[in-house]
Amino acid sequence: MSVVQREKSAQDFFFSYLIKVMREVFYFRSNRNVNSEVVLKQILFTGFEALPIISFIALGVGGLIILQGYNLLSNFGQGIWVHIILVTVVVRELSAIMTALVVIARSGTAISTELGNMVVNREIDLLRSFGISPLSYLVASRLLGVMAALIILTLYFNIVAVLGGWLFSTIFNRIEFRAFINDFMSILHFQDIIMTLLKPLVFGFIIAVISSYQGLRVQRASTEVPQRTIKAVVQSIFIIIVADILITATFYYLS
Amino acid sequence: MQLAFSSFTVDDALRNLDLDLHPDGITVFYDEEDKWAEKLLRCLIGLDPWQEGQIYLDGKLWDQYISEHSLIKTFTYVFDDGTMMSNLSLKENLYLPYQLRWEGDDLHRFEEELASLTARFGIDIDLRIRPALIRPAERKMLCFIQALMLKSTVLLINNPLYLLNHKQRDLLISVLMEYASQQPMIIASYDSELSRGFADRTVFIHSTDTGLSVKIQQNLDT
């Protein structure tokens, strides 16, 4: 069996595909086909171009949590504890999930569609005819780009959500920004920061692997492209939620 | 290079093929059905799998030869529809395999060779644009330029005249004949024009009730 044949059959089985992609990423520094320009373009598309929608969602989510939390807790005279809700809900959970959903909607669909169209237009065959592995040239670069962009976006989401929370909290209380941040920092643990960094890393990996896998599974017809893209979106959301539960459960168990 | 298909089987129709040839100059795989010749080229470049049998290159198994010499140094394949990467500019498309083939970033040499070949093919296009923005025939001509710049051991071409008008066909045939002395070419074609007065040898391929029939004919008039 030739090298190219082995690669083709590997794509038919998700786990062999996963292992090959991980190997490509692991050795990316020595891999001539992993293009730093493609990685940067992916970070630009996934990260920078998603900033407006992320800002809007983060500001809204941060504000709404403060609004709802303050209304609820002030009934018991505990309005000050709204920061705990902000850390628990936004920093530990929502920031990574919301950012991942935006990235699935924008970049996951784009990766799946682009690779699917490349298969239909025989561009994948073209790369293979040069002896270039599509996994290292197309997939590994996008994977690294999505993972890096998701970490940056999640951190950005947290910052904007906290700022949104403070802006909304000033509606109820004339609270100083420094005091708000001090309260916030006092309940933010090192474990929360680790979770904030780990989740987007895992989610970025899941989104890029599933989207590229589904894109490369397209056979001949262009009508397969939207079908594969839908599969990529549904599977990414499902696996991300499962991964989120597992990561959160592991952290609670360890602490 | 000595090229041999031994007991080569792809599917029920293409089975137990034995073909041994020394593809100096131009070899045309003439296939009226426009099916098997392309299949053989795709197997040679490693794009399609085969079920049984072997391909030998200079007496070595395909896998062994390719791992020793690399695919891009051994074969270059020109697709019939002028396939290019849609996310790269024309120039990036031309440079991507060139960089890999010559293992370096000699942009100056690349620019020189590119200028000479675009002039030879009479192409005057802004190479910073994407492939989708030019006509398929122009894209196909650029694919020939890309392939000739790689100077692989054997150039594989699928249906070279497809998409081209009469003038472009004449130009292409003259360029290929010019380069054939420097680089062996195997051409898959259903166009009988190519098997007469152009090829050094023609391999006639057609399917029969018992399988595939292959006949090699040396063209003495070329």
How does this model look, in words?
- The complex is a heterodimer of chains A (255) and B (222).
- Chain A contains ten helices and no strands.
- Chain A starts with a helix and ends with a helix.
- The longest helix of chain A has 39 residues, at 82-120.
- The relative contact order of chain A is 0.16.
- Chain A has 255 residues and is mainly α.
- By secondary structure, chain B is α/β, with parallel strands linked by helices.
- In chain B, the strands form two sheets. Chain B has a six-stranded mixed sheet, with helices on both faces. In chain B, strands 2-1-4-5 form a four-stranded antiparallel sheet.
- In chain B, a hairpin with a 2-residue loop joins strand 4 (52-57) and strand 5 (60-61).
- In chain B, helix 4 packs parallel to helix 6 (136-150) and helix 5 (107-120) packs across helix 6 (136-150).
- Chain B is globular.
- The mean pLDDT of chain B is 90.
- Classes of the chains: A mainly alpha (255), B alpha/beta (222).
- Chain A binds chain B through residues 1-5, 8, 32, 114, 117-118, 121-123, 125-132, and chain B through 45-47, 49, 62-63, 66-67, 70-72, 75-77, 79, 81, 83-87, 96-97, 100.
